[in-house]
Amino acid sequence: MATDKEWADRVKGLLKAELKRRNVTYEQLAGQLAGLGVHETPENIANKISRGKFTAVFLVQCLDAIGCKSVPISGE
Questions:
Q1: In terms of C-beta density within 10 A (0-12 exposed, 13-18 middle, 19 or more buried), how is residue 72 classed?
Q2: What is the pTM of this model?
Q3: Residue 66 in contact with residue 24, Cβ under 8 Å?
Q4: In the chain, what are the domain boundaries?
């Protein structure tokens, strides 16, 4: 059974991988989020992702902002 930290690391890795796959920086993500009406600084984004502790709402906002329509979530 996975611990909360392991789940947080998994979600953090998922978001970071999608950003890397699309070559999106935190600065670019901040601009794309602003286009959705979500105002975060690149520093706040970096801190949230680094901690791995962010809401599902933030995750979906980020994925939508970068045009990600689906992500693999299996642990395989």
A1: exposed
A2: 0.90
A3: yes
A4: 4-65
